[in-house]
Design a protein that fits this description.
3 helices; 3-stranded antiparallel beta sheet; hydrolase; mainly beta; Deoxyuridine 5'-Triphosphate Nucleotidohydrolase, Chain A; dUTPase_trimeric; dCTP deaminase
Length: about 180
């Protein structure tokens, strides 16, 4: 079952969901709006290697915004730290942002129970698009979990800012 807006408020008040900063005005009928943070990260090589660390460049957004370009992957992050030890969070792009031609989080919307931190956003525009820090970029929904819960304790726990892929961590011992 998906949590409704009033249940998101109640669960945040009771501590079953943690959102910081939390603003009631960002609660929707069945989701919570999250905003784009002030840092983007891009990969610096033409070929990204899944089995090795890849160099990245950091971009700081200011009040003038920043133009995203097609054929480039931008890693952004949410302003909010969001997590729950009780519910499964899913993050999707807002439809109004999608209508501007920006794909947000299209391959990894599911969060793990027990993850707490800023969410990394995979941003991919279909045409040049100016984005701004603090703009509403996505929405997180919360679903009830059934069965035993094992809390997340992985490599992205307590993320702050955009996190580049650490996939290579998973394969180092298998090569």
């Amino acid at each position: 079952m998906i949590l409704t807006g009033p249940q998101i408020i109640d669960s945040t008040t009771s501590g079953r969901i943690r959102i910081s900063p939390f603003e009631v005005a960002q609660v929707n009928p069945n989701s919570y709006n999250v905003r784009l943070g002030s840092t983007l990260r891009t990969y610096q090589t033409d070929v990204i290697d899944a089995y090795r660390p890849n160099p990245t460049q950091s971009i700081t957004l200011d009040s003038d915004g920043y133009v995203l370009h097609p054929d480039e992957l931008y890693l952004g992050h949410t302003v909010e730290e969001v997590g729950s030890d009780h519910y499964v969070p899913l993050l999707f792009g807002r439809s109004s942002v999608g209508r501007l031609g920006l794909f947000v989080e299209i391959t990894a919307p599911i969060g793990d129970i027990g993850f707490h931190g800023q969410w990394t956003l995979m941003l991919s525009p279909v045409r040049p698009l100016r984005v701004y820090p603090g703009m509403k970029i996505g929405q997180i929904m919360f679903f009830e979990a059934y069965g035993d819960i094992e809390l997340y304790s992985g490599k992205y726990q307590r993320a702050a800012g955009p996190q580049e892929s650490r996939y290579w961590h998973d394969v180092v011992g298998t090569m």
